[in-house]
User: Fold these one by one.
Assistant:
Number 1:
Amino acid sequence: MFDLWFWVMAVVGTLCAAAGIWFALRNDPPNDVTIVAAGLVFLATVVYAAASVIRPLVGDPATGNVAEFWAYMLTQLVLPVGGIWWSLVERTRWSNLVLAAVGLVGIVMAARMNQIWYGVAGYGA
C-alpha cells in the first residue's frame, strides 16, 4: 500500500526523469526545465520530511525503524542538491541523465520510505 506522499514523489520523479531523458536524447545541455524539475523533487522531499515530523504528533507513527527512515530521508534530500550542482558545473547532455537519475532514485527512495513507515518490508518483516 502506497500513501499520498509516495504518489506525489512518483509523479514529480517521473516528470523529472522524463525531462532529463528527453533533453539528453536531444543532446541539449541542462536547462531551466531539467533543473527546475530536480528542484521540484527536492521541494517534494522537503514537504515529505515536514509531514513525517508532523504525522507522529497526530497519531500516525512510523511502524518500522525510524532511524532507517530518516537515513533514507536525509539521503533523498541530498540527491537533488547534488544533481543540480553537477548540472551547473558540467554543462553537457550527460548532466541531464544525472538529473533524470535524481527523479528515478527519488521514486525508489519514496517507495522504500513508505515501506519502512508502515513496517511492511525489511529485516524480520
Number 2:
Amino acid sequence: MIDVKFNFKKKFVEIKGHAEFDEFGKDIVCSAVSVLTQFVAEIIKNEKNGNYKKKDGYLKISWKDNEMSDKLIMYLHDALKGIEKSYPDNLKVEVNK
C-alpha cells in the first residue's frame, strides 16, 4: 500500500510504500503515483519553490507558500484522491491540516 500524507500547514507531502497492485514493471498504480508525484516535485524544485527527498519507496516534497506551488499541490492531491477511489487497497491519501 502506498501511504500519502499531505500537511498543508507545514507545507509538505510524504509518499511512502509500494502499491503491490502487480509485479514490478507492471504495477499501474505505482506508475501513476510515481509519475504524478515526481513530476510535481521536479517542477517545484526547478522553479525554486521548494525541494524534495527521494529514495526507494519514499518521496517527501516541501514547498514554499506561493500560488503556483499551492495550485500544483492541490492538483496533485486531487489526482491522487481519484486514484485512491479506484484503487483503495493500494493507495491511501490522508490530509493533516
